[in-house]
Amino acid sequence: AEETRDAINAANRALPAWRALTAKERANILRRWFNLMMEHQDDLARLMTLEQGKPLAEAKGEISYAASFIEWFAEEGKRIYGDTIPGHQADKRLLVIKQPIGVTAAITPWNFPSAMITRKAGPALAAGCTMVLKPASQTPFSALALAELARRP
C-alpha cells in the first residue's frame, strides 16, 4: 500500500509539468518513445519471449502493435480541442474545454504485456495526464523495458 501511495504521489508531482506541455510537445515525446520501441523491437520481443513464452514472431508483432498505439495517440493528442455547442437560445453557446484530469491508473494483464500498457498509457499521456501502472506480476520486465525507453531523452 505504501509503494502504491508513493507511486501516486510521484505521478501527482509530475503532473503540473506534464500538463503544462503543449499537445505538440507531448506528441513529440510520444513519437520519440514510438521510435525507440521500433528501434529496439527485436530486443523487446526477445525479452517478452523469455519472460512469458510467447513465440518470438508473435512477440515481435506485439511490439509493433504496441508501438502503433503510441504513434496513434501521439497524433490524436494534437487534435484534442474543445467544442462549441449551440445553446437553448440562438444567442447562447456552450463551451466544452478538454483538459487533463490528473493522475490515471492501469492494471495490465500478462497475455499482451506491451500492447495493453501502451493502449492505456498512450491516450492518458497524450491528453496530458500522468499514469501509475501495475503490470502483471508474470511480465514485469516487459513493463520495465517500455518504461526505460519512455523515460529516455
UniProtKB/TrEMBL annotation:
Keyword Ribonucleoprotein: no
Source organism superkingdom: Bacteria
GO molecular function: succinate-semialdehyde dehydrogenase (NAD+) activity
Database matches in InterPro entries: Ald_DH/histidinol_DH, Ald_DH_N, Aldehyde_DH_dom, Aldehyde_DH_Superfamily
Record-level GO BP terms: gamma-aminobutyric acid catabolic process
Domain Aldehyde dehydrogenase: 2-151
GO cellular component, one term: cytosol
Keyword tags: Oxidoreductase
Record keyword Lipid metabolism present: no
One Pfam short name: Aldedh
Similarity comment: family membership: Belongs to the aldehyde dehydrogenase family.
Protein name, per record: Oxidase YgaF
